[in-house]
Amino acid sequence: MGHASGRLRGWGGVTAMGAACAVTAALTLVPLSHHGTGSAGPSAAPPVHRVEAAARETADAGAEADCPSTGRPAEASLPPSSGSGPTIDKMLRREGDARKLIVGVDQNSYRWGYLNPATDAFEGFDIDLAHAIAKSVFGDANAITFRPVSTKERTTELANGSVDIVVRTMTISCDRLKEAEFSTAYFTAGQQVLAPRSSTITGYNRTLAHKRVCTATGSTGVQELEKDNPYGAYFWDASRNVGHNPDHVDVDDLSVPNQLDCLVRLQLGLVDAVITDNALAAAQAAQDPAVELKGEPFTTEYYGVAARRGADDLVARINYVLEQYRSGGADSAWQKSYDKWLKAELGPTTGPPAPRYLPGA
Amino acid sequence: MTHPPHVRETRSPAPVPARPQGPPPVPAPDEGRGKAWREGAERLRRAARTEPGRLRLIGAALALAVVVFGAVTAWQGSDRYASADDVVGRGQTVKDTADLYGALADADTQAATGFLAGPTEPSDVQSAYRGDIARAATLLSGLAENVAPGSHSAALIARINGRLPVYTGLIERARAANRRDLPLGGAYLRYANERMAGTDGILPAAEDLYTEQSARLNAESGSARTWPRAAVALGILALLLLAAAQYRNYRMTNRVFNRGMLSATVACTAVLLWLVAAQTAGDIGLHRADRDGQQSLVVLNDARVNALKARADENLTLISRGSVVAADGRTDLYEVDFGAKTAKLWADLEGARGLADDAAGRTPVLAAIDAVATWRERHAAGSRASAAGEFARAREEVNGRGQTSEQAFARVNTALATAIAHEQDEFTASAKNGRGALAWLWLGAAVLAVLAAVSAILGVGRRLSEYR
Q1: Which residues of chain A have a CB within 8 Å of the CB of B321?
Q2: C-alpha to C-alpha distance for B378 and B394, rounded to whole angstroms
Q3: Which of A62, A103, B42, B423 is a Cys-bridge partner for B296, taking CB atoms 3.0 to 4.6 Å apart?
Q4: Is A139 left (phi over 0), alpha (psi -120 to 50) or beta?
């Protein structure tokens, strides 16, 4: 027994020395290697190319440039129509309890699409819009079945017909146009910084230098940081296994499965700021009066309602609903919903994004 | 102390016998000790030339063999007894680590169950959680006294001790947010669950502790069950020497019996038989404790924790509601985890059924298997409701009254508790039997060996007296 523990102590010493060597090596080597991947020079490795491609795509969407596949901006949708067609007619033939609009939604995005456990009802900005569409199609705002769908399932669930439409903080992008049809944009979102009110961080700028920034795995936020990380924030991209952080900052705190997990880390003092899109950041701020959105959004994304490809009549109808939803300025249904769910955290708005339509369709 | 020169002597060529007419032997380089040894050997040789001298030598050899036999038997017997005693004591420590592991896993499950019930947690769930944390704290302080300071087990206990208060703090934060209907509460609960059950969490440390203490139990059982070969060999040697001495005595005197040597033989035989019988009985007891108790306990305890983990995952599927996805990017992480844990649970129960040695052990295992099948069905019904967005119905399937997952899980848990209690009793009873068999061997061996040595000397002394 005494012998065994003596041996353990011996090994402990060896391990400690080994660990000390490893730490020294890591401290001297890691910053260098990060500079290597951080700079988008000619020596950049393949993953960095991939990152830039993804980032360019986001930027394209923001700049409303034409999609290479269609030759049109991603946000341009079919002109509005109150008429019907094969898709809507088929939906209207549903009988009894099934005579409802099936909507793919999020159930965890506070203020957007959230299943409130206290009331067992879905609520939020996205949910209000879904009700408006159901009212137009079935004449009853409550003729609706909400079906929770995960981010990755959104387009497959549309394609296989499990849901009629998806209203789920879904960004319109050229890539997604290959898998789904989008309505006109109903919300302008962007990546934004969230930090404690008392923090010295003032936005996406040099105040982020050497601050620990939490992002959700694979999110647009981390892709933005990865482009060049201009302000020297500490972050980690788990899906590509690259990032920039000193050893004492745990990568599990910097990169989390769900954006809400970032607020946990922020409250526990494990990170200094969160970067996520402002819609979700607002939902976080709504749950913690001690944090706030900092600065302005530094990217531009548009949310749209998605439908199955080829469901042109349904998309035209949704665009028609959106026209009505947006109209009326300060008294519009859009504005009322915004005021109810988002104004407190996102502040006053200039109104919904202007619709863009495809010419002559 | 006499060994090195002895070895040397047997290796070197036999020294030339000191004959008066011969020349004195050439002194070896290491003269000093060799000389003393040779003088001693010479005296023995001279003594062996006469019959009384030979008898004296025989008597001394017999007494020495018997005493060495007795001493080695007493030493090995007490060593085996000490190991068997360790097995009985370690069994309690292992039970405590299993209980700790179970209490921690149960705390996590109760926290998730109460959370899912909504802003107002049911008071029975709250008190079950508090009970688990209190029990874990009590067990931890008890275990800290029973493991070697500085050992890996002690480090594991320190780790659990350090992390448990952090965990309970996170649970309270989750509860506070849940009370205000904030989804943040779910994120805190997931975070707490990760601290408890994640790869670097509390439960893996508790599992390591359990595994380590079980391994130590096996090692102690193994050393108690190791045959005392030296004692047996010496016993046979002593008996052979006694037989040879008596045969010689018969040849020299035509007397069939020498009472002293005979009683020495009887005493030696008794020690040897006792040794063999005690070791066999001890071996059987400890083997039973291992086969009928400990092996079943290992799988049953594993099954219990897997059932608790699966139950926590089941609650978390309804709490996280798809916000954390598995590696495939689609399926709910906790749904995947639930499947994996119940698969392990199933395998454990199949194993336990194979290991169950009697009806009392088998019945609860079969009941648990049956309940797990029901549980899986009800869980699937809940998952279907959840996928259809019918949260209230999903929660009803999982946590409501009547035919729910909750109730099926409770049956699994109760059946496992019964099975564990039964196997624990079997283990303790068998291990105590094994220890009891080895209890007085050391004393018996010592007393009988002394008697045998005295008898042998008296027996030889009787012959010797005929020469005076």
Answers
A1: 107-108, 115, 148
A2: 10
A3: B423
A4: left
**Whole-number Å distance between alpha carbons of A43 and A37:** 9
Q: By CA distance, what is B188's nearest residue in A?
A: A264
- B181/A116 Cβ within 8 A: yes
Q: For chain A, what are the domain ranges?
A: 11-35+44-63+191-299, 68-186+303-346
Cβ separation A148–B387 shorter than 8 A: yes
Q: pTM to 2 decimals?
A: 0.78
CATH 1.20.120.1730-classified regions of chain B: 94-218
Q: Can you tell me the distance from the alpha carbon of B396 to that of B406, in angstroms, rounded to the nearest whole number?
A: 10
Residue of A nearest to B147 (CA): A1
Q: What are phi and psi of B90, to 5 degrees?
A: -65, -35
d(C-alpha A275, C-alpha A192), whole Å: 6
Locate all alpha helices (DSSP H) within A302-361, ordered by sequence: 312-326, 333-341, 343-346
Q: Chain B residues with CB inside 8 Å of A145's CB? A: 388-389
Give Cα A262 to chain centroid, integer Å.
Answer: 13
C-alpha angle A297/A302/A303, rounded to 5°? Answer: 120
| Domain B94-218 CATH assignment equals 3.40.50.720 | no
Interchain CB contact of A69 with B (< 8 Å):
no
A68-186+303-346: CATH class: alpha beta
Contact A150 B188 (CB under 8 A): no
Q: Check: CATH 3.40.190.10 for A11-35+44-63+191-299? A: yes
**pLDDT tens, per residue, chain A with 361 residues:** 334 333 434 444 444 444 444 444 444 444 443 433 333 333 333 333 333 333 333 434 444 568 887 778 888 999 999 988 999 999 999 988 889 999 999 887 889 998 887 787 899 999 999 999 999 999 999 999 988 887 777 888 898 888 999 999 898 988 888 889 999 999 999 999 999 999 999 999 999 999 999 998 878 888 888 888 888 899 988 777 777 788 888 888 898 888 889 999 999 999 999 999 888 898 899 999 999 999 999 999 999 999 999 999 999 999 999 999 999 888 999 999 999 999 988 888 888 999 999 886 5
Q: What is the mean pLDDT of residues B304-332?
A: 83
Nearest to A36 by CA among A242, A324, A278: A242
**Residues whose CB falls within 8 Å of the CB of residue A322, separated by 6 or more in sequence, listed in order:** A80, A183, A184, A186, A305, A355
Amino acid at B205: A
Q: Does A261 touch chain B if contact means CB atoms closer than 8 Å? A: yes
Judge whether residue B42 has pLDDT over 90: no
CB within 8 Å: B391 and A115: yes
**Fold identical between A11-35+44-63+191-299 and A68-186+303-346?**
yes
Decide if B120 touches A, using CB distance below 8 A.
no
